[in-house]
Design a protein that fits this description.
The structure is a single chain. By secondary structure, this protein is of the alpha/beta class. The chain has a seven-stranded parallel β-sheet with strand order 5-2-1-9-10-13-14, sandwiched between helices. Strand 11 and strand 12 form a beta hairpin. The longest helix has 19 residues. The chain is globular, with a radius of gyration of 19 Å.
Length: 321
């Protein structure tokens, strides 16, 4: 089965599977579409959290203990910021991490696109696979959050980092989507006839994958794609392995299980990979018109990530017939 594998990814969970795929595919075979709904400007820097997690993970310089940021990081900047401007210190920026943001901000200001600067950063980190932003246009995730102070719309990072996901989510919207477009590089990759499989990583469906799918034209291109489209469930035995996925599903009135994930992706995916702990739900998922397979989806080690990547590609071969 020749061709390229197109991967839709958020941050930590998606980067783990992307890393596994990078170990078994040739660099030119792997195309990763990164969520940019989390992107924001802070203290004059243009910050792309999910892109950077992918860059650091595939570049072998990620902080494996925190799951985000750079390994062997130093924090002189943040320590001084905390002393002098504590109101701005809510978003952690390590000294090495800052150089990535400084470079990105400078190159964007020169007129380059986010796709171009991301490709340049990938070369800096000696990454052979292509990392493509979901769009070069501003498109930001906002959540309608409810707390004791009432309801208010918050940019994603305000909710996720500054308020630590504590408010209740009532609704999610992607601002700027009406004026956003797929980059020529991304659209060309999907329509070029070389895609052999599309993989939706086990990232948060609502905050990481949905923004990518919300870019005008993305869903239509995936539905028209002749390659199998496969999602990997981020929910195992009723719980998310990382992040607020379970909390958000409950707050939106949804049952936190793999059948809800299947329903969410119905009409887009051909197959769903679930954890072996949820194997009892295979028939329920298949009853929704989605093929399903069960394997170990808990990626604790590099070997786990490679094994899941192999299972996902094997499933794609089976669905391709």
């Amino acid at each position: 089965m020749s061709g390229q594998v197109l991967v839709l990814s958020g941050g930590v969970g998606g980067a783990k599977l992307a890393l596994g795929l990078s170990k078994i595919l040739e660099p030119e075979e792997l195309l990763i579409v990164a969520n940019t709904g989390d992107d924001f400007e802070h203290m004059g820097f243009y910050i792309c959290p999910d892109i950077d997690t992918l860059l650091y993970t595939l570049g072998g310089v990620s902080n494996t203990e925190t799951g985000w940021g750079r390994a062997e990081e130093t924090w002189s900047f943040m320590q001084n910021l905390q002393q002098n401007h504590p109101e701005q210190a809510w978003f952690q920026l390590g000294d090495k991490d800052l150089e990535t943001h400084r470079y990105r901000t400078e190159v964007l200001a020169s007129g380059k696109t986010l796709t171009e600067v991301t490709a340049s950063l990938a070369r800096r980190f000696q990454i052979g696979a292509s990392i493509l932003p979901m769009t070069d246009d501003p498109m930001q995730t906002f959540v309608l959050a409810e707390s004791d102070a009432g309801k208010q719309w918050l940019p994603f990072q305000e909710y996720f980092v500054r308020q630590r996901c504590e408010p209740r989510i009532c609704s999610i919207e992607f601002r700027g989507r009406d004026n956003a477009a797929l980059s020529p590089q991304l659209e060309g990759a999907i329509t070029g006839g070389r895609i052999r499989a599309v993989v939706l990583c086990p990232s948060n469906p609502y905050l990481s994958i949905d923004p990518i799918l919300a870019v005008p034209g993305m869903k239509e291109l995936l539905r028209a794609c002749k390659a199998p489209v496969i999602a990997v469930s981020p929910v195992v035995d009723g719980k998310a392995l990382k992040g607020p996925t379970t909390k958000i599903m409950q707050e939106l009135g949804l049952v936190s299980d793999v059948t809800t994930i299947a329903e969410h992706y119905r009409g887009i995916v051909d197959g769903l990979v679930i954890d072996e702990k949820d194997s009892g739900a295979l028939e329920t998922v298949q009853a929704k018109g989605i093929s399903a397979t069960a394997t170990n989806t808990i990626m604790l080690t590099l070997e786990d990530r490679i094994a899941l990547a192999r299972d996902v590609l094997k499933f794609a071969v089976e669905l391709a017939g």
